Amino acid sequence: MNAFEIIGGKKLKGEITPQGAKNEALQILSAVLLTDQKITISNIPDIKDVNKLIELLGDLGVIVERLNKDTYTFEAKNINLEFFSSDVFKAKGGGLRGSIMIVGPLLARFGKAAIPKPGGDKIGRRRLDTHFLGFEKLGAKFIYDSKKAFFNVDATNLTGAYILLDEASVTGTANIVMAAVLAKGTTTIYNAACEPYLQQLCKMLNRMGANISGIGSNLLTIEGVKKLGGTEHRMLPDMIEIGSFIGLAAMTESEITIKNVCYDELGVIPEVFKKLGIKLERRGDDIYIPSQKHYEIDTFIDGSILTIADSPWPGFTPDLLSIVLVVATQAKGNVLIHQKMFESRLFFVDKLIDMGAQIILCDPHRATVNGIDKKYQLRGISMTSPDIRAGVSLLIAALSAEGTSTIYNIEQIERGYQDIDIRLRALGAQIKRVEGNGPSH
């Protein structure tokens, strides 16, 4: 098992470019199954979850060609539907949450699919009901084999329907959109997610010949078409990385420029970090963060404690709440972090408390942070990364801390962040990869 060893307390300096968006990649790559024509996709992040999905597409029979570091072509001419009943698929599909995303396109094009019960982050229950209920509304029939933990799906006659989603799930919306583009008639999806990633998917599908209107709103209308063709697509930069780098700059008092951020697609993210007192400025399509000794959390107008909560887009993304929480530990002032979506995402705060942060975990969804205004540094400890986002939050804490920290289970971090140690070293961070089995306690 690999670990990161970090010597903290060092100011960083320089430029860093965010990778392509992981959450967009899982949708866009799955969409290549909707056509037998060639699709070229660029700015693909070189990370484990994405590479596993590309490998899975190859196993299904998609002709995959890598043109350069971040650009691939995909041609899904001959798909081997027998692969679904193989043990290889069971092992690979079960180990990757993103594998659920291939179901919609396969149902649309071939009328059948199968999926093992997916795995992924340990951040509480992540229901897939939204996906399945949407497919059922379109006419798909599910048979769950509890012995093999496998779903078999029959969708020989998908027909457009009115669908009210029980939650504005990004992956759920994407999957249902991909199933609906080739269904007969009109599909209306209400309470649809409208994240930039989803807008990207809908625009790409329209370029392929789909007929989707309402893009960017929570009401999507899809007129089914007979066939889709090829296209070219470039993915957005990863907004979660961008937010992580803003937090990193503030915590380590570093002067950092984040390059090519597609600023107009970041929504409220820059504003939320400004509420924590972090100075940042837009320079063209870059974000410049000056070195800052202190930053002070805003209060509400009546002086009451600021609350930062996640909510569906255009609200604040839940993936950045753990970053906001860690950054607040060194701010002046207090903030209540309210994680509405996942019930176990805040459980990593015990590690921050061990490092010297002042945090009260109110319940599985809420934590109050009492910022220590850098009166003293956090101290380095040994810890284990429970999930992707918490892992990076702990990494940021370690880079700002006094002394040496070791983070185990970094495979979790690397599922979402490409070459993170190499890119941080380029800014001057003291971080190296070491062998390790985890903390002894």
From TrEMBL:
The active site is at D121. GO terms for biological process: cell division; cell wall organization; peptidoglycan biosynthetic process; regulation of cell shape; UDP-N-acetylgalactosamine biosynthetic process. Its EC number is 2.5.1.7. Residues 8-420 form the Enolpyruvate transferase domain. UDP-N-acetyl-alpha-D-glucosamine binds at R97, D319, M341. GO terms for molecular function: UDP-N-acetylglucosamine 1-carboxyvinyltransferase activity. Phosphoenolpyruvate binds at K22, N23. It is found in: Cytoplasm. Signal peptide: none annotated. GO terms for cellular component: cytoplasm. Pathway: Cell wall biogenesis; peptidoglycan biosynthesis. Keywords: Cell cycle, Cell division, Cell shape, Cell wall biogenesis/degradation, Cytoplasm, Peptidoglycan synthesis, Transferase. Cell wall formation. Adds enolpyruvyl to UDP-N-acetylglucosamine. Belongs to the EPSP synthase family. MurA subfamily. This is UDP-N-acetylglucosamine 1-carboxyvinyltransferase.
